[in-house]
Specification:
- With 605 residues, the chain is of the alpha+beta class.
- It folds into 4 domains: 63 residues, no CATH class; 46 residues, no CATH class; 172 residues, Glutaredoxin, CATH 3.40.30; 201 residues, Glutaredoxin (3-Layer(aba) Sandwich).
- It contains 20 helices and 10 strands.
- The strands form 3 sheets. The chain has a 4-stranded mixed sheet, with helices on both faces.
- It is elongated, with a radius of gyration of 37 Å.
- The termini are far apart.
Length: 605
């Protein structure tokens, strides 16, 4: 670092014995002895100009070296970031200094930025359920090997619990037939599909296959279904807690992937041998012990006490003193509610569509058909998000109002299905409606004071407005005006029915709702009068079309898929039906180009 000197100066410098380097010719004084190392050198003059002998003389080597400050660039991000964000510039500068053998601490402001780039502690994250600490909750998973929905849930429950910060999953087998008997289910101890109509069985089976494909579960069906699995469930109870999850997966796959008869003792021993040959006979013998049978009965009774009526079901457990357990959730598609319970969130997050890698040549759908009825609270929840979904995916939304009562009568379903579901299931469905409404950010009035609603007039109004939208040319100003009127009327009628709890079967309530939607007094009367005359034909046509498409309830979405084998668009062979407002993320995946499996197994589900 010393400045350049002339050759004469370098020779003079070499001739003078010293312990430090030459500072400069202007600052050099007379040769003296260093007061620290006692060597003769040319010491630097004092800053005050005092060169007397009383002033101690120190050479450059003896004097402590003053660290040179390094100017650091600004950090890339000043806010707190996660562990995956790269380190800031100050952190990299400190690492380079350490690698050269000279550890130089950066300035105070740079050190503060370096601390800000470090990840927060696990238990300090916002909305966390405790991570893997001593007070982390765990999820209790109730299942029966004979239930295909529990099979699909077994592929998702542990990943969902881990993502929510739970400590683990406790696998609790239950005897599903005994649960049905205790809650007095309408199907008795048999499978729930025996009380479903043909259209609903087909819709539920297709939905189950789609959800299994999304979860990666190898669902192939079982020609012997339903099979008595009581002894297999007892084997799970007899296994150590650390092995129950693995044994349950082996039995699930043997039943639903391989189609084995777990009610046969010889078949069961072969499955247990594949699990662990050294313990297969012991597990089968332990399944006949009274304490193992009592453990299975205790799991089933605890599920009924919690308000359960079927599987799969989940409860978030907090076993520490003062900990409060979460609510019971039922179904393979409610894991986002379980995650919200783990994190103790008031408003759960909605299920999101997957990030798909599609073929560049895949044709995306152009239209989305929605069959709806104001009488259904599920249609109300779907209507709040259908328009935003169509706009986000850039497709044309065709709303087709139907009479859900006429649809139920034609396919052989009870007029009010929730009234025939049993007390436990009806109470749960009301609570789940409130949870979905909170997740979508809309108010809902359940139980409704006027339920079931007669919505013939309201549906005729919407059917007449929807017919005007479809008759107009796509993209024109006339279509945009007609679509705005339909959207405003639909929103006003749904809000009157399910946000305020009014009886939309009364003509005065319909007129008042249209006036609030911006139609005006005369305009609302005119729309209602036209609907009484012309709306009936459009409503009957939409209902017959929904029945022919295979709908079993509302809301039902129809998405036209990629053409296969020369099939024309918008035909049953090239369309996908999605039933339920809780499948909006599946509808979005279909609209983005994903196609469900074309070859579906024919075995019973």
């Amino acid at each position: 670092w010393s400045p350049r000197r002339s050759p004469a100066g370098r020779r003079r410098e070499r001739a003078v014995p010293r312990c430090g380097r030459w500072w400069s010719s202007a600052a050099a004084g007379t040769p003296r002895r260093c007061s620290r190392c006692s060597r003769r050198c040319r010491a630097r003059a004092s800053r005050r100009g005092n060169t007397s002998s009383r002033t101690p003389t120190r050479c450059r080597r003896a004097r402590p070296r003053r660290p040179r400050r390094r100017r650091h660039r600004r950090a890339t991000s000043r806010r707190r970031c996660g562990a995956r964000r790269r380190a800031s510039t100050c952190c990299r500068a400190r690492a380079r200094s350490a690698s050269r053998g000279r550890r130089r601490s950066p300035p105070r402001r740079a050190r503060a930025r370096a601390r800000a780039c470090q990840p927060l502690p696990r238990r300090a994250m916002a909305g966390d359920g405790g991570g893997t600490g001593a007070r982390a909750p765990h999820v209790e998973f109730f299942f029966d090997v004979a239930c295909p929905f529990a099979f699909v849930a077994s592929y998702k429950v542990e990943a969902a619990a881990r993502a929510a910060g739970a400590a683990g999953v406790e696998w609790s087998p239950v005897a599903l037939g005994g649960v049905y008997r205790d809650v007095k289910a309408p199907q008795g101890t048999r499978s729930a599909s025996v009380v479903m109509c043909a259209a609903k069985c087909a819709m539920v089976g297709n939905d189950l296959r789609v959800m299994a494909a999304r979860a990666g579960a190898p669902l192939c069906g079982n020609t012997r279904h339903p099979v008595r699995t009581l002894r297999a469930l007892r084997c799970i109870c007899a296994a150590p807690p650390k092995d129950r999850a693995r044994l349950s997966r082996v039995l699930f796959e043997a039943y639903w992937r391989d189609g084995r008869d777990l009610g046969d003792e010889a078949e069961l021993i072969r499955v247990l041998t594949a699990f662990d040959a050294s313990r297969a006979a012991g597990l089968l013998a332990a399944s006949e012990k009274e304490d193992v049978k009592a453990a299975l009965r205790e799991h089933s009774e605890r599920l009924v006490e919690l308000g359960g009526f079927g599987v799969p079901a989940y409860v978030v457990r907090r076993p520490w003193p003062g900990g409060v357990d979460g609510k019971l959730w039922w179904g393979q598609d409610v894991l986002h509610f379980v995650a919200a319970d783990c994190r103790e969130l008031d408003t759960p997050e909605l299920p999101q569509p997957r990030q798909l890698r599609l073929e560049p040549t895949a044709r995306k759908p152009r239209t989305l058909v929605l069959y709806e009825d104001v009488a259904s609270p599920f249609s109300y929840l779907a209507s709040t998000a259908a328009e935003a979904l169509a706009e986000r995916c850039r497709v044309r939304l065709l709303r087709r109002p139907v009479l859900v009562g006429a649809l139920f009568r034609e396919i052989g379903t009870p007029m009010v299905p929730i009234a025939h579901a049993g007390e436990a299931k009806a109470a749960y469905l009301r609570r789940e409606m409130e949870a979905w409404a909170a997740a979508r950010g809309v108010p809902i009035c359940v139980p409704h004071p006027h339920f079931p609603l007669r919505t013939t007039l309201a549906q005729r109004v919407l059917a007449g407005l929807a017919h005007v939208v479809e008759a107009a040319d796509e993209g024109t100003a006339a279509e945009q005006r007609a679509r705005a009127r339909l959207s405003a009327a639909s929103r006003a009628l749904y809000t009157a029915a399910w946000a305020r709890g009014e009886d939309v079967g009364q003509p005065g309530v319909v007129v008042a709702a249209l006036e609030a939607a911006g139609f005006g007094a005369l305009g609302a009367r005119e729309v209602v009068d036209k609907a009484k005359v012309n709306g009936g034909d459009a409503l009957r046509s939409n209902t017959a079309e929904a029945i022919a498409a295979g709908a079993c309830g509302v809301p039902t979405f129809v998405v036209d898929l990629v053409e296969r084998g020369g099939q024309a668009a918008n035909t049953p062979a090239s369309c996908a039906l999605v039933w339920g407002q809780d499948r909006m993320h599946v509808v979005e995946e279909l609209l983005r180009g994903w196609a469900p499996p074309s070859r579906l197994p024919s075995a019973r589900l």
